[in-house]
Amino acid sequence: TDAHVAAVESARELNAFITETPDLAREMAKASDERRAKGEARPLEGLPIAIKDLFATRDVLTTAASHILDGFTPPYESTVTRNLWDAGAVLLGKTNMDEFAMGSSNENTYYGPAKNPWARAGDNRPLVPGGSSGGSASAIAARAALAATGTDTGGSIRQPASFTGTVGMKPTYGRCSRLGIVAFASSLDQAGPMTRSVRDAALMLGAMAGHDPHDSTSVNSPVPDFEAALTGDIRGLKVGIPREYRVDGMPGEIERLWQQGMDWLRQAGAEPVEISLPRTRYALPAYYIIAPAEASANLARYDGVRFGHRAEDAKSLTEMYERTRAEGFGDEVKRRILIGTYVLSAGYYDAYYNKARRVRSLIAQDFREAYREVDVILAPTAPSPAFAVGDLVDDPIAMYLNDVFTVPASLAGLPGLNVPAGLSDDGLPLGLQLIGRAFDEETVLKVGQVLE
Ligand code: GLN
């Protein structure tokens, strides 16, 4: 813990943390030492980890990287973090992120962008770590935490893991409790581990997951021993290669890495099979209707009365609401609220929101059909390596395109894993993604370990 507290300090230029908790970390580590001395060590005893600032941590500032949550210290603990402390983990601090988890670069944050510890050969501009769980990814890549939590609504664990050469898993929707995680799009949000290795991801997920009677969408089934699934034996497994993921303009280096991944799995005894997920191209537009729609409803609670920031000197209640929200939310959050209220408004509900929901079930159906033939799907995680801070901030559509390979699994609720698999032509990490059947994280992790 002392070494990691020091590493968090020396990595400060990355702006990976919003809040550091060194005193709490030492206190927790001491309690862990005592347990270990008594021979009562738990699975993550004494392991220093970082928590995305979207998880409510009791008595520790929780901001969702938003000005509107200024000074909010929750009186309760999220179930996932509670599970991690019960397994013996130690809190190093709360990590930077895109505000309310909306973004793909960690630039939409009140606390200033987090940076990627990697740099492009011959170019000293700082790179984004991806988003929205960019601070967690950056902290892992910089060795400032052994592991971290992230959340993934449309790719926010997998894409930053790909940009930083780390492992990140979005479990099946319902595997982890959402209680105490600041809500973005409730039918998509899912917590997951961000780590250096697939084995660490298996251990973290084992501790994070589990039924929570206080979250009706958390599944009531036993948590498998994910680590035991890492046998290295993938002989005979069928690996789907979805033809529709070969999108126009896909960079050659991504295409080559994907091919390389297929070859590695074939050499390990698995069998790549070409499959079709015909509705893939509708996933991104459907996601950017459903996620903002749910966000606009979830974010209605930030009214200046219950949490954080409140505008001063308002002359009426309505003016207080309006000014609090105008001052408290950043531009991207406002854009999502506007899109969301538009697609949910009486005249447009059927044309946009209901249509998007129908598309969503067709996408889930595509996956169900594919999994009659194959055990797992292999695809790229992101369409490019990390880009420079500032490059896409003024182009929301280009930013949204980053999610093209991650949102289909999100809409279908399926587990997805990023494994670092190679380097781009200019020396940056590139990841491959494995997408599994619902509640079959074990196969995903097992195949992922062979790729790593
Ligand atoms: N980049 C996507 C978005 O901005 C995904 C975010 C996420 O998964 N939290 O909505």
UniProtKB/TrEMBL annotation:
Class of enzymatic activity (EC top level): ligase
Alphabetical GO biological process terms: translation
EC number: 6.3.5.7
Residues annotated as the enzyme's active site: 52 (charge relay system), 132 (charge relay system), 156 (acyl-ester intermediate)
One annotated GO molecular function: transferase activity
Keywords, in A-Z order: ATP-binding, Ligase, Nucleotide-binding, Protein biosynthesis, Transferase
GO CC list: glutamyl-tRNA(Gln) amidotransferase complex
InterPro entries in the record: Amidase, Amidase_CS, Amidase_dom, AS_sf, GatA
Domain of life from the UniProt record: Bacteria
Record Gene3D superfamilies: Amidase signature (AS) domain
Reactions the enzyme catalyzes: L-glutamyl-tRNA(Gln) + L-glutamine + ATP + H2O = L-glutaminyl-tRNA(Gln) + L-glutamate + ADP + phosphate + H(+)
Residue stretches making up the Amidase domain: 1-445
Family: Belongs to the amidase family. GatA subfamily.
Assembly notes: Heterotrimer of A, B and C subunits.
HAMAP family: GatA
Known role: Allows the formation of correctly charged Gln-tRNA(Gln) through the transamidation of misacylated Glu-tRNA(Gln) in organisms which lack glutaminyl-tRNA synthetase. The reaction takes place in the presence of glutamine and ATP through an activated gamma-phospho-Glu-tRNA(Gln).
Protein's name in the database: Glutamyl-tRNA(Gln) amidotransferase subunit A
UniProt organism field: Limimonas halophila
Name of the gene this protein is made from: gatA
